[in-house]
Amino acid sequence: MSRSEDAVTLRLERDGRELWHSSASGVRPLAEAVLALGEELRGAKAYDKVVGLASAKLLVYAGMVEAEADVASVSAVRFSAQEGLVLRSVVVTPCILDRERTGLCPMEALALKVESPEAFFQAVLKTLGLTQGGRNGSQETG
Fold first, then answer.
1. Torsion from C-alpha of 18, 60, 110, 81, nearest 10 degrees
2. Selecting from 3.40.50.11810, 3.40.50.300, 3.40.140.30, 1.10.3660.10, what CATH number does the domain 10-130 have?
């Protein structure tokens, strides 16, 4: 997986072809990609700057098979191994904090409460105000 553009925080690709990229932070760009690309993501690979449990659940829901991250949480590593998602990261951290670093990231807290990847995806859509068929700001390529 190529990481040639430092500003890109999320890149999804399959068979060497980029399917999606974004420079936005958080789980929104991944949720938007899953919403927009659906089945096209099955068997794809991801580079996501930070993979917490929330991102891991979305990757599994989308049917992706491999992910690389600069930072991954312990819960993401465990969940990925359990679900057959190959997750590699430079750093493994106990948890993903909110932007102010005062507590757990809200999406991580949601991921801990909602067990199945399918139900979690629906909860993310609701929380972020996304609807089926909308992209809301990320960049699709390809």
1. -120
2. 3.40.140.30
Decide if pLDDT at 22 tops 80. Answer: yes
Read off the amino acid at residue 65.
Answer: V
**How many residues appear in the chain?**
142
Determine what percent of the chain is predicted with pLDDT higher than 90: 87
Give the per-residue pLDDT at 87. Answer: 98
Pair type for strands 66-73 and 50-51: parallel
Residue among 31, 29, 52, 40 nearest 112 (CA): 52
Residues 11 and 46 sit within 8 Å (Cβ to Cβ): yes
